[in-house]
Design goal:
The chain has 136 residues and is of the alpha+beta class. 29% of the residues lie in helices and 24% in strands. It has one domain (7-132). It is globular, with a radius of gyration of 16 Å.
């Protein structure tokens, strides 16, 4: 599976240059693009991380961490050359350079996955996470 295909949509949301931060009309033009709801692997894009800028996808279920799903999360991480860093919520980070490729948030009414859009296997990571974290 490829990188995320929402790159152009994400780029269109960001400031094209610093001066645009004070341009209300440019802001309104950018926000009109949000009327589209892109999907990847059947999951809707619900926004972007405020600090990280990673696209965020809604899981179709509420997520509660358990021994079983954290072990499954670690198996997914391992399959993509990553480890899990357990902070406020789990992050998948590459062994080779500690680059964060994904984060999984559970403290909303639905689970969310933030993904690094340039990661070559991002869509596959999203698909696998949605499968292994689904409550039984």
């Amino acid at each position: 599976m490829p990188k995320l295909t929402v790159g152009p949509w994400i780029a269109a949301q960001k400031l094209p240059h610093r001066e645009a931060a004070r341009d209300r009309h440019a802001f309104l033009t950018r926000t009109r693009l949000r009327a589209e709801t892109p999907e990847v692997a059947g999951l809707p894009l619900v926004g972007m991380g405020g600090s990280c800028g990673k696209p965020c996808f809604a899981l179709p279920y509420r997520l509660t961490w358990t021994e079983a799903n954290t072990l499954a999360l670690e198996e997914v991480a391992q399959a993509f050359g990553c480890y899990v860093e357990y902070g406020l919520y789990p992050h998948l980070k590459r062994h080779e350079d500690d680059l964060e490729i994904a984060a999984v948030q559970d403290w909303t009414t639905f689970g969310m996955v933030y993904l690094r859009p340039g990661f070559e296997q991002a869509e596959e990571v999203l698909t696998r996470l949605a499968e292994v974290l689904r409550p039984e």
